[in-house]
From TrEMBL:
UniProt keyword Nucleotidyltransferase, yes or no: yes
Organism lineage: Bacteria, Bacillati, Cyanobacteriota, Cyanophyceae, Nostocales
Entry-linked Pfam families: DNA_pol3_delta2 (PF13177)
Keywords: Nucleotidyltransferase, Transferase
EC number(s) per entry: 2.7.7.7
Signal sequence extent: none
Annotated source species: Anabaena catenula FACHB-362
Molecular-function GO term, any one: DNA-directed DNA polymerase activity
Entries under PANTHER family matching the protein: DNA POLYMERASE III SUBUNIT DELTA, REPLICATION FACTOR C / DNA POLYMERASE III GAMMA-TAU SUBUNIT
Name recorded for this polypeptide: DNA polymerase III subunit delta
The protein's enzyme class: transferase
Gene: holB
């Protein structure tokens, strides 16, 4: 069941033994960096759990149902946006062309839906399973509501996926068995990218550097890279040549890139500038840019201040 998951031997061993010994915890927390296989591991674990309730020849059908999210004993929760009275996942928002400044969150209503789902006995499986992706996005009210469910999960197992235990309320963490996930080495990343049909990313070392051992992050970064005009990318990866050039770059970024692309560009520029000139002050300036954008400051003004500062820093670096 775990064959698609690469480089996470400890997690695979812990989860496999739990099923073999029939010692399934009421709640797990899969912790690790984004894109290293936490969600895939959750799916593989659920397939292993549910396979005991079907005949061997029915397993391929079971796997398809789990992947499509239509198994009656599985409830998969993702952070959502609130838009015109509807809740939209990030994928649904992108499909509808909805651009939001604030990131999606797991809402109190979604926790109530979990409670309702768990109020009935499992169908077609020995237990109900609930998966919460990006559990760190839960508001405090939602986390407190989930705590009541974790205290008495009944015939169910909950899987919380988060970057670290510190990103989730301690009261939730204390009720979960932690399963660690780690970043992969370069060969592991290459293996995942090849296996998923993303070999072309291997030709972009800057994307691989940004991903820092996370195949999922490499794929997301490459997809984001494709949305940014190549001419603009070439211009911004060079330090500004004048005050006027700094202002022009800011204007172009504001005009051509949405907020998500601008935030990704900060990571890309930090990587690019560090390779060109090892000046920590420029990296710190870009970190301020990120914070200002996340605080909904006017993007053009933020980038103007950024590039003007970078221009001055680069001048002092070349002309001490």
């Amino acid at each position: 069941m775990f064959s698609p998951l690469i480089g996470q031997k400890q997690a695979i061993e812990l989860l496999t033994q739990a099923v073999k010994q029939n010692r399934i915890a009421p709640a797990y927390m899969f912790v690790g960096s984004e894109g290293v296989g936490r969600s895939l591991a959750a799916r593989c674990f659920i397939e292993l759990l549910f396979s005991s309730s079907v005949e061997p020849h029915q397993i391929p059908t079971l796997q398809n149902r789990i992947r499509q999210g239509n198994h009656p004993s599985l409830f998969w929760v993702e952070p959502t946006y609130q838009y015109q009275g509807q809740r939209l996942t990030a994928a649904e928002a992108a499909e509808k062309g909805v651009k939001r400044k604030a990131p999606p969150v797991i809402r109190l209503e979604q926790i109530r839906e979990i409670t309702q789902f768990l109020s009935r006995p499992p169908l077609e499986a020995s237990r109900n399973v609930v998966v919460l992706e990006q559990a760190e996005t839960m508001a405090e009210s939602a986390a407190n509501a989930l705590l009541k469910t974790l205290e008495e999960p009944g015939q169910a197992t909950l899987i919380l996926i988060a970057p670290s235990p510190e990103s989730v309320l301690p009261t939730l963490v204390s009720r979960c068995q932690k399963i660690p996930f780690y970043r992969l080495d370069r060969s592991g990343v290459a293996q995942v990218l090849t296996q998923t049909g993303n070999e072309e990313i291997l030709q972009h070392p800057e994307v691989l550097s940004l991903a820092a051992g996370s195949p999922g992050s490499a794929i997301a970064s490459y997809q984001q890279l494709q949305t940014i005009p190549s001419e603009l990318l070439q211009q911004v990866t060079k330090t500004p040549t004048s005050y006027r050039n700094a202002l022009e770059l800011a204007k172009k970024i504001d005009k051509e890139l949405d907020t998500e692309a601008q935030l990704w560009l900060i990571d890309y520029l930090q990587q690019s500038y560090w390779q060109q000139i090892h000046q920590p002050s420029i990296i710190e300036q870009l970190e301020k840019t990120r914070k200002n954008l996340l605080c909904y400051a006017q993007p053009r003004l933020v980038w103007e201040c950024t590039f003007l500062s970078i221009f001055q820093m680069s001048r002092s670096y070349t002309n001490p």
